[in-house]
Amino acid sequence: MSDPIEPSTSSSSTKDPALLIHPRREPFEHGLLPIPKLIFTDPTQTLIPLKQKLIEQSSSHRVNSAAISEVLQISIDHARLVLDTLASVLHSESDPLLKSKPDVVDEVGADVNDLVLFLYIQSYKKLLPRTHKDSAAVADVWPSTSAFDGYLSALSPLQLVRSNSRRFVPSQADEEAHQLSYLQKHLANIVSLLAEPVEGEGEESLVLTMEKFEHLGFLFYFGDKGSEGYHLGQYAPFFANSDPDMPAVPVPAAQVHDWVLQNIVSSLENISERISPKENGPPSSSDQDVPMADACTSTNKGSICVRGPSFIEGISKSSLIKQASDLKGSSVKVLNCHDSVIYILAPLRYATVYGCSDTTIVLGAVGKAVRIEHCERVHVITAAKRICIANCRECMFFLGVNQRPLIVGDNHKLQVAPYNTFYGQLEEHMNEVGIDATINRWNEPLALGVVDPHDSLSHPAGVSDAQAESGSHLDPEQFTNFLIPNWYGGESEGSTKDNPFPLPDIYVASQQRNNNLGEVKQLLREAPLEENRKRELSTALHVYFKDWLYASGNIRQLYCLQGE
């Protein structure tokens, strides 16, 4: 089964796009953990006996943190991290792990088959960014280097991303081809992890049941992203016509391998055909944003995709509000934005912020995972199930998170604080994606290693590892509410009238001391001044406020938002 086969010779350009196979991006983008004991030099030889040990831990073939910790020889904290991370990237919404409350996750546990596939792809290495076609133009928008660059030995996150001829995040087509190539190379091993021998015929006669075959849906899907609700078996000729009332006959593992391999080869040919005209044609500023198999419409502020993630890219010295009706799909990527304020007030599954600087980003409610990477001097405000922060500097995070914030890579001067804002539909969006406002673990960050073995750009081979710098708690005296403008009505109206996450007492007390605007208004109204003197005072305050708006740059927000 390890020998490659020749794919069918039919032209991929004539194949129905709905029948093309795609890699699921979520495990590769949000499911990789830089824990050395999870990365195996020979995954198959290691994982097959580990799978058997995991199965022995439970008759139901579902394992909890304690079993994962014992079998993989990792700490219980890391084992729970494995369980939570796997849950955030699972393909089946019906899996009981996804429906479990945090306090019963260990009682439910993870399916062993999904777990071994999750462990296998920990060997994946991310694609190196490619050079932007207009390097000089892009360079103009970037800020000067950080004040800390003089004495910190490592390059800052943005210097690193912008080095090597101004490299940028790879296009979606490039990433998809890279992920498919990885799966193509490792397909025989992956199938063997799910296969089982026919009773009485030995290890050479491996077969896959329909139930085991469906676990490949963790790594692949067919057609448009909206087709994820369909079972993978519906696309396989050997399972497509199975009687739902009868168990399907197991299929030889070699047959499954050959069929999936043919589909991967066909999709890779399709990607190559779509990329070639772009590379041979005139440079296009939108080449970076157009995802493979994702129809996109461009606006003057980023790219919004009909399927797959919506992109907000290259916003500079501006403000932007996106609500649920503005987004196509349930994932968002905010890329390479500078000196801006971005509001994404919508229920989301996944959100990624990459390569941004001097920007405030509000992410509405994110039910699966948020990843913040290679950012400088960015403020992120989000209600989310979980968040991962990687290779960031001088950033501040106001969090309402149900799981411990994960901090990995080379970070410096990070601060974390409790969630500090709201908008009308926030609680509705949180309920829609499954975020519990009674649980906020913002102050329990979990720091892993500085070296990320999946990222050869940030950490070349041979660099020694150490624990990542964690985030310090924001001084309560510095904590203030963040006000989201409600100038639009419509979607902005809703039942949420206040921050749904309870604040720690020390932050409540500080907030009460600092929230003196109402007191100032009351003092002005009651001041023993003649009406003309009150008007003069009011005029002076307006002048000072206007001066502050211009001096701080916040006046731009007013102009930008009024012009939307």
TrEMBL record:
SMART domains: CARP. Residues 272-293 are annotated as: Disordered. The keyword Iron-sulfur does not apply. Gene3D superfamilies: 2.160.20.70. It comes from the Eukaryota. It is found in: Cytoplasm, Cytoskeleton, Microtubule organizing center, Centrosome; Cytoplasm, Cytoskeleton, Spindle pole. InterPro entries: C-CAP_CF_C-like, CAP/MinC_C, CAP_C_sf, CARP_motif, TBCC1, Tubulin-bd_cofactor_C_dom. Keywords: Cytoplasm, Cytoskeleton. Residues 282-435 form the C-CAP/cofactor C-like domain. The keyword Kinase does not apply. Its main location: cytoplasm. Belongs to the TBCC family. PANTHER family: TBCC DOMAIN-CONTAINING PROTEIN 1 (PTHR16052:SF0). This is TBCC domain-containing protein 1. It comes from Prunus mume.
